[in-house]
Amino acid sequence: RVLHNAIYEAANALKSRPESARKIILLVSDGQVSGAGNTQTLEKNVDVLLQGNIQVYSVATDYALYEGPLGLLNAYAKATGGDVFKGGSPEEMESAFPRITEQARNQYVLGYVSTNEPRGMRGTYREINVRTRNVELKVAHRKGYVQFPAR
Hints:
Blueprint lengths: L2 H11 L9 E7 L12 H10 L2 E7 L2 H5 L4 H9 L2 E4 L3 H16 L18 E4 L16 E4 L4
Parallel strand pairs: 1-2, 2-3
Antiparallel strand pairs: 4-5
Helix pairs in contact: 1-2, 2-4
């Protein structure tokens, strides 16, 4: 029940990977968190994940928790551009892993240079909004990023 701590530790373990390497965290979880034992929070972890350019993918062992709009697994996935898959049965669990691999492999990277000036030494959070003209396309992207002052 220390999901926040586990995500924080996984994100820190990925810090040593090269910038050019794709970084993902794969969770197999029911998404439940108890108050005791967690020293990290969703908000703190999202900052760490965005700074590290890390996506979170989850296989939800209890679909009812996956489905809720405020579920933790969904919150992490939406914030980082990842996704959540059903895993309540052996068949669902088995089909989730190749779908995660497919999604993680087949992505486009959009880039731009911001003309906004960051405020403060901790950087400035910038929200991202991505739209397509084709309504049949599924767009998954992280909610935003942290812009740091130039070095």
